[in-house]
Amino acid sequence: MFAYSVLIKLLHSCAESNVPSKYEELVMKCLWKIVKTMSNWAADLDYDTILLEVHRFLKVEKFFNNILYIMTNYLK
Q1: pLDDT recorded at residue 61
Q2: Is 46 in contact with 5 (CB distance < 8 Å)?
Q3: Which of its termini does the chain have fewer beta carbons within 10 Å around, N or C?
Q4: By C-alpha distance, which of 14, 4, 17 is closest to 69?
Q5: Do 52 and 4 meet the contact criterion of CB atoms below 8 Å apart?
Q6: Domain locations in the chain?
């Protein structure tokens, strides 16, 4: 699914720049909503592209802050 890769790229861009946190939150919320329905379209995913985007995102310095934010706000 193309939207998944685009949202990861947007999140990566947010982490590298000084965008308002509201924008970053919106991207993360969209990403989580798509992930929740992943079982419906898992066969259509391009896993190589998605994993590459996730890898690029994880290399960003703000990675730990993003993960902490996600864990405290979305994984309850």
Answers
A1: 56
A2: yes
A3: C
A4: 14
A5: no
A6: 2-73
